[in-house]
């Protein structure tokens, strides 16, 4: 689950991480009130207006702007709030439709007048599954695309691996601050900042924290100016307060609908709809489709209770994607019986106007009975036994 910048900063503050302060505005009638509140706190007319959408590169699309007085602020805020913001990371990129900006963050200007007195740093924390460790990625080249920095000047990107059982050790915090070229007050501030940031990462069951930029201000404070936070969905049951931050308007409507029906669905870019039970089987199914020249259109896991109602809902969700030209149903009958799944497929197919070929592959408990039910249904549904046969049947259906 992704958080907005302002939500991520609220989370960081709970763990003692210093952030660029700001006020969230959703209604244009509240713009003046937000400006005055921030001015009273910061004693300056300068503010930064930031669009709040789940996409990076907001500045490149005009979604982050500095206002030097109230008049500029009101003009900029009225332009950004309600705009369709296009960034390199919104659907379709800069040539796509963009995302509707429903909230803005009115933030304090934390940069010194002399820009060279500020250091922009990149910091992220994520999990390296190959090393079974968390990893802190950091660089002096903050405020830029870290991918470009890593490609052009890889020596400027550092990694610090952290044993989850030992946690982030004092020498590692000092090493990070040293590699960033900090000293004195800024050095001490960074060791505290990175320690609190790591604590926030582990305590919130996050899968990603990205602070870009992390700023060393003109007076040597260390602040999170921007942040991207992704929380592991599987751990949200432990964090009811974070779960309440979910903004479904920023998510794919079909994925939201699937979630509400207890289905795991992720939209992809292909033309073969996949309906399976189990994440591992889903991955194997998608691999097999690609091996035979197709492209999966989705990842859809109906779970262990693939009854008629669940299968029908899965059909409806898959068919909302106009790119789907065939559907492959691949079910392993372990917890659920294959004949029950087959009856569900037949019943669901009879209730929905399905115009694309359907290939069904059932294995496990009562697989032969399930195949018989499919074959005798009278529906235009092709059954298969081996996964290779199913993938080949899909490819033939696409010709």
Give a verbal description of the structure.
The protein has 399 residues and is of the alpha+beta class. It has three domains: 1-20 and 111-251, ATP-grasp fold, B domain (D-amino Acid Aminotransferase, Chain A, domain 1); 21-109, ATP-grasp fold, A domain (Dna Ligase, domain 1, 2-Layer Sandwich); 252-398, 3-Layer(aba) Sandwich (Rossmann fold), CATH 3.40.50. Helices cover 36% and strands 24% of the residues. The protein is built from 13 helices and 19 strands. Strands 1, 8, 9, 10, 11, 12 and 13 form a seven-stranded antiparallel beta sheet that branches. The chain has a four-stranded antiparallel beta sheet with strand order 2-7-3-4, with helices on one face. It has a four-stranded parallel beta sheet with strand order 15-17-18-19, with helices on both faces. Helix 11 links the parallel strand 17 and strand 18. The longest helix has 20 residues, at 184-203. It is elongated. The mean pLDDT is 90. It comes from Membranihabitans marinus.
